[in-house]
Amino acid sequence: MEFRKITDDIAVSPQIATEDVQAIADAGYRSIVCNRPDGEGADQPTFQEIAAAAEAAGLRAVHQPVVSGKVTDETAAEFGTLLKELPGPVFAYCRTGTRSTTLWSLSQARTMEPSAILGAAKAAGYDMAGVVRRIVNGGKTPTDEGDAKFDVVIVGGGAAGISVASSLMTRRAGLGIAIIDPADIHYYQPGWTMVGGGVFEAQTTARTMASLIPKGVHWIKSAVAAFEPDNNSVILDGCRVVKYDRLIVCPGLKLDWNGVEGLVDTLGKNGVTSNYRFDLAPYTWELVQGLKKGRALFTQPPMPIKCAGAPQKALYLSGDHWYRNGALKDIDIQFMNAGGVLFGVKDYVPALMKYVERYDAKLNFFHNLIRVDGAAKQATFRVSKPDTEPAEVTVDFDMLHVCPPQVAPDFIRVSPLADAAGWVDVDQSTLRHKTFENVWSLGDVMNAPNAKTAAAARIQAPIVAENVVADIRGLNPQAVYNGYGSCPLTVEKGKIVLAEFGYGGALLPSFPRWFIDGTKPTRAAWLLKEQILPPIYWKAMLRGREWMAKPETVSAG
Q1: Residue 557 pLDDT
Q2: Which residues does the UniProt record annotate as the domain Beta-lactamase hydrolase-like protein phosphatase-like (predicted)?
């Protein structure tokens, strides 16, 4: 017998025997629901036998037989009623547990998010892809799909999505392209570090989505609920269905603010801030200006995260301000890093360490933020150093800059497109999905082992566009991604260590060393970040003008 827990209120199981009933009672379950008709298999006990064993064990037992493959809307609603009326928690079973899980999934569709239902079922070992449209439709079978159909559907209207749409348009005029994204505003997220350092104004990093969607590209202003890659379909909230010939997936990642206990309740007050949010980056600068003495903590969660250098960028720009105004001697700066190194590419570490020393910052490795008490101004970390028992440490603070934990979006993690860790599963060279040949991915959501930065998306967009167009023409992939990413580390106001690297930490500089030596802080790299990259982003990258980003053709197909 298997206890496959879905929630605290219900577990499911394949067929049970009468001798299993007492173990079910001992595990704390108070009711049993049998969803298997009697006589379905020669080796199954009858429901009356199970019911008798349940009565002897002090459990309620109900028979709701459902024929395999015929879970109706009505039987799902009945199952939901049973869950409300029976003493809980409930233990349900059928031949494999799939029918019971399907009944639960459909019965909860009106009160739970589809991704939460799919995720809970998946964690219990059941794939609900076959009823995903019904789940999205509130547990009922859709009567009208209302299909729209496009040559290419792009999920996500961020830097990656708009750039790849523009790159496709420059290569293949007349393509029917749709971008699916519910957001009204598009953000230049690399600018938020500069906002938190008092260099940019927040409003310069935001524009309306409508102003950026390429001409001729359809914008479907909706959230994605699920994918059916076997049917070439994307299911939207409300159960609308968008069909495609080819799909590009780039919705970014999810900042898991709730992954740190107490964090959401104190963000934006009590000295707790983050440059990872548009509305909080100005508060970072307010705190930096106002802090004259005390302790400033800067946190970094486990990888992968968006722009791995951003947590320490905030530290350096803050430290530089305190260095220049004379307050540094009275401020204790501490970098709380869940990882074990300052930066993943060793060539840049010596230059960064000089600034760690300049700002007298203490490096605390293997410290992962798990809890914040804003009112008490205390942060608690789980310390997991190699070869030592994990422990918890609570540190007082006057200012706390948080980089939140980061995961793939919920609707990606539970989809057939995801790998075991929840990221879109692609070939790291072609960025084509490993299982579904008409699906590609780029940006923060896919599982290639590259840095998750806007600079990476700038290089990836033309590569994906090139390979999608090659596929339309019946050719093999034409372009290969080398893992390029860039992280302009703002070590002081006016100087940047321009880290550019690819797979395996290989250095991939864009400029000759006499102009910008990326392993050293330079004024030229600062001018690039401050004055050149923003207009390149808005006026080139998002418009398909591939400045220093044109892919090389590597195959004749």
Answers
A1: 42
A2: 2-110
Return the residue matching tokens 């896919």: 446
Query: What tokens appear for 464 in the block?
Result: 């994906």
- The catalytic site residues sit at 307, 487
AA identity, residue 376: A
Are 157 and 249 in contact, with CB atoms under 8 Å apart?
no
Q: Which fold has domain 4-128?
A: Protein-Tyrosine Phosphatase; Chain A (3.90.190)
Encode pLDDT of 147-198 as tens digits: 789 999 999 999 999 999 999 999 998 999 999 999 999 999 999 999 999 9
Matching residue, tokens 């159960």: 239
Q: Give the closest residue to 228 by CA, choosing from 109, 138, 145.
A: 145
Across 331-438, where does the E strand assignment appear? 331-337, 362-365, 367-373, 378-383, 391-396, 399-401, 406-407
Q: Strand 331-337 and strand 362-365: pairing? A: parallel
C-alpha distances out from residue 157 to 109, 168, 181, Å: 27, 14, 5
pLDDT score recorded for residue 556: 45
Distance of alpha carbon 400 from alpha carbon 372, whole angstroms: 9
Q: Compute the radius of gyration of the chain from its Cα atoms.
A: 27
> What pTM value is reported for the model?
0.87
The answer for residues whose C-beta is within 8 angstroms of residue 494's C-beta and 6 or more apart is: 523, 526
Please determine, looking at this structure, whether the domain spanning 257-404 carries the CATH number 3.50.50.60: yes
Does 375 have pLDDT greater than 80?
Answer: yes
Instruction: Please report, for the chain, the start and end positions of each structural domain, with discontinuous segments joined by +.
Output: 4-128, 149-253+408-543, 257-404
Domains 149-253+408-543 and 257-404 share a fold: yes
CB of 178 within 8 A of CB of 169? no
